[in-house]
Amino acid sequence: MMTVATTMAADDSRRAAQSHFRTLRLGTPFQPRLDALAKTGDWYNWAGYRAPHSLWGEELEYFAIRSQCALFDISPMTKYRIEGSDAEAFCNKVTLRDVTKLKPGRVHYTAWCDDEGFVLDDGTLFRLSATRFRLCSQERHLPWLLDSAIGFDVAVEEETESIAGLALQGPTAFACLRAAGFAGVEKLKVFDLAEFPHENGTVTISRTGFTGDLGYELFIGRDLALSLWDRLMEAGELHGIRAIGYTALNRARLEAGLIVANADFVTAEHAIRSNRTRMPDEIGLGFMIDPAKAHFNGRRAILEARARKKLRHVLVGLEIDGNVPAEHAIVYHRKNREVGLVSAAMWSPMAKRNIAIASLDLPYGDSVTDDLWVEIYAMCELKYERLMKRAKVVPRPFIKLDRRTASPPADF
Amino acid sequence: MTSFDRAKWDVVVIGGGHNGLVCAALLAKSGRRVLVLEADAEVGGSARTEEFFPGFRASTAHLLNRLHSEVVRALDLKRHGLELSRRPPTPNPSPQGGGGLGGAATTSLMEAARPESLSPLRGGVRSGGISGSTFAPSVALSKNGNPLTLHGAYGEALAGATPAEQSAWKDLRAQLLRYAAILKPFLSRRPPQLGGGSFGDMAALGQAALAVKRLGREDMRDFLRVLLMNVYDLLDEQLTDDRLKGLLAFDAVLGSHLGPRSPTSLLGLYYRLTGESGGAPGAQIVPKGGLGAVVAAIRTAAEHAGVAIRTGAPVAKIVVEKGRAVGVALANGEEIRAGTVVSAINPATTFLALVGAPLLDTGFVRKVKAIRMKGDVAKLNLALDGVPGFAGVEAADLRGRLVIAPSADHVESAFNPAKYGEFSPEPVMEIVLPSLTDPSLAPTGSCVLSANVQYAPYALKEGWETGKPKLLAAVMAQLEAHAPDIGKLVRHAELLTPADIEARYRMPGGHWHHGELQADQMLFSRPVSGWSGYDTPVEGLFLAGAGSHPGGGISGAPGLNAARRILAERRKA
Question: Which portions of the sequence form the region Disordered (chain B) (predicted)?
Fold first, then answer.
């Protein structure tokens, strides 16, 4: 007979293994610094981590990106370490773009699909060496990546927890890094990466970002995370460095015309309704498809959909009359036929335009672009004002900043 | 003489098993230049007849009960030497022979089932069929010399049971055949393609639905009720004789990792009964020359159609360029190009070893890796110094199939250890003495015993090195209990575990069907969902083996359906 004592012991050990019940939102390696700066206390859940919507004021945080430099904690981003003699071939199978063209020390934006050609996620692929990559993404994909590794000499492991990440974005970002003593960082062109010494270790700095601005991303082992934060904040003090939350970043990315998985499109593994999945062509990522490269997941389905004209949607940038953001507004043709939905919208301070990203049902947004309208419900003191505003399909990005690509980057 | 150096083949078929040969023959008949590549020195796979001891020959597949009539017709196999045990029924049954069948305990069910084919001899022998062949009876052996015998086409007549049981069996048999007949049309066509299916696919489903409806309300309800049932409970509902229930339970689970009480085990019995010989559903034949003779006829038909066959030519790789199969590379490095590549070997081997996972979508690789194909059947070949006597079995019935499965409970108990990686201590088995039908298989006065023994799990926990002698001892003890003194006749015993079968016939898991034939791996889920129509994600590569619909057994149906699919594709293009 099992005694009460042994039952309780078993319960205790089980509880001990369930620490996730105690910490419902994990802290990132930068949490002590974020907590100290979090005047608004406006947290949200980013992939299981406690991340700030804002820290001290979302309006000014946005302007920190555009006129100073902003420090944003990207540690919750899912990160995979991919290493082995077949790492290049493996990445080439999993992702859409041709990885054989991605040289060591370079980064590219890419996406990946399931067998049916539906997008599982988008993300950035960092080529750290000939045989080592880092894949960063919104969602988690380890089982998919491990099953994709069958037949390749490659090891894939998740390093989300062990690697801390920071984005440093804005016109003074380079000046800040130079002041922090990262010698040679001026040599980094857009999408370059290099390793730099930090304390007794190294930090990987890439000239990448999610703002359309001059900016860098820094990856470092979690042990050295806080000292890196301090080094940047100290060096950046005279360059206007500010820690920011996601709301500000989200505005900057919209101005840059960049899309967010599960905000602007539903990823294939999240979609419950079969017509919510999207092929790359349907979310503006068709440029990534290279039929001439080696086999990649979804190739057959994507090429077949193109050949048989089975594509049903298009993702477009819209410019909308007026200044009321059209977030989640329905898009109409001739004010009466429903043809799509806005997934992100804002009044852009930089573009001085009312902008949006929308998903439209073909042929609207492609061959039919005239007479498009959005229906905005503006809440005014507990009453909806219904606005029917004219929308124009415009190219993305909505703003183009020369400083983003200028080489060498501007100093301040 | 055929040149193998022809600049270009239209089709190269990997695997010279019977399905590969059937597919090749049909494609050649349509005017394509077809090359069959067989890894072994001989075609036929597990159906080939081989010498296992000097002077003694046997094939691992030892009964013919489902060679598809459309295959026989399309390849004109009769003209190409398919000789199905033409020996006429013994005119004067031996003293203890067929004459005994007419006793009070026997009721002929043939009259009810097919009055037009009633044989002048009552009982298990009937004429008609493709070549006036003798259908082999099935004998449920009993230790106490009181066997039960199913004569004719799957028990048209039942000997050795009470009148009440015979009557119950007559009803059950008719019902099983009626229900199996609804599923039968699916054998010789592509599984209906769900989603994006053609009109034909929908029509096939519609026809099946109509056939179900035509059963009448009560029967239709019962068909739907029992479809996914376990065979054990169904037998319990209708029968009382343990021997009969044991035999039927055994037949339902033979070749699969199921016990009679496992859900859906009845499907196995339906699968058996969708097969036919000489137009008679469920009929079985011990072919003269073993199954090897059947393969020889198919090979002759293929060669007559212009197929070139190259043996000793293992394929190492399917060459894929830009998502399209363009040929194969042999183990010796030689490359053979062809517009169409047909793989009549195991689907997992095809994709994971010959194409390679890197060239396939991840989701597809997942599905292929998930195909369950661990065999549970061992094959016993005995070289005997004389014909063994089985307690109470008449000499004529020794030419049939002898089954040791004393009860459905016994079959279930035999399955239990297999779930945990152990073999059955008292295995169930079906025994054939092929040399009685074809004396050339053994030296004069000697005898070949061929048995399928269940359950012998592929992944035996203790490993087959030490497990095999123990299994052989268990099998021999079981045989001895039903055929006293058989041990003294054994000159040589060859036991093939699933691991041996895997190595000898390149059948992963040693699985006959190249993938468990259970509800989740049937029809549109065979070999994997989304790719059940013989075509594959690799353009120009087709499957044609038992791993595809409808499954294993010497039917030729996968090869037939694959050939039709390929021909239809070409017409479309």
Answer: 82-105
